[in-house]
Amino acid sequence: xxxxxxxxxxxxxxxxxVTEVLRSTQLSLGPKLEEFENCVAAYVGASHAVAVSxxxxxxxxxxxxxxxxxxxxxxxxxFTFIAVANAVRYERATPVFVDIEPQHxxxxxxxxxxxxTPRTKAIIVVHTFGCPAxxxxxxxxxxxxxxxxxxxxxxxxxxxxxxxKVGVLGDAGVLGFYPNKQITTGEGGVVVTQSKxxxxxxxxxxxxxxxxxxxxxxxxxxxxxxxxxxxxxxxGIAQLSRIDSILERRETIAKIYSQKLRGAAxxxxxxxxxxxxxxxxxxxxxxxxxxxxxxxxxxLVGELKSRGIGAGRYFAPIHxxxxxxxxxxxxxxxxxxxxxPRCLALPFFNRIRNDQIEExxxxxxxxxxxxxxxxxxxx
Length: 379
Ligand SMILES: *Cc1c(COP(=O)(O)O)cnc(C)c1O
Description:
This protein is 37% helix and 14% strand.
């Protein structure tokens, strides 16, 4: 792709930080791990941070660490990355899909209570595309029904909710640092929490279930190797040190897209955040107007790609994936099923140039205009 959907932004200083680790004697479980955890905790305002191998392993360890297992139900959105529901199934619990609201594409708090049963143990709230979910309402429902709240903050590092950062509002928050995220460690994730006990459990589970008091080959419980290397952590520390300018740049890119695409009648542009919230821009996703179909969306993706422009289908609903077709689905998901087939992610990365944004917008508007004309003539 000439203009990819996403691209990492790695500075010379960051390359040097990783190289320094490679010249040291400690490549795992060393000082960079602790420093990275401290930096992330300080940035989001958490008392504890535990770094792990990915966002997915962070989600898994939250489910496991909260004692959720067979027979339990966890409320999740379907309009998100499949790892959210997979993490629930890893522990043989059941993901129960709830619909999203159309403004910010986050879990609709008005649809949560009807999905709660005596087996419901937790809600995984995703801050979709970096836009904070309605946490006040969701936390109130969770409190009323005695449910845990895990915030999937993998798309929302640095997003703000009423004066606080997302990730620290529920029982635990999970950050992800895959290369398409706001900052990257290559692969990696961090669980943040205010609970000392949960942090200690997750710390043990990431390293084969070994507790601090155990000897090296003494293991208290069944754990995993979800460790993250010192090289990943060194990259994360350096990336996080310039998060403010990264988020500023991404906001500027989003504004340019919105200005240039404003006149296109075929497109619905992303909304700004709710009052007292701040978006951390993860991707720039437009929707085709409701009169268009999934086939037309896929045609646009294909045409953009053939012009060297990386466009993506964000997200294919989880409940429609082959691996989930046999799972029980409780609620109807009309908003998810209406919006997901019309979503189109545009190239979005720190180093995208203004002339590249211009080219994406010109191509998109021309193609969208053409399918618009064709749709009208067909009627
Ligand atoms: C990226 C992402 C994750 C974590 O992905 P990994 O590849 O496991 O780091 C989890 N949830 C959501 C919503 C994501 O976008």
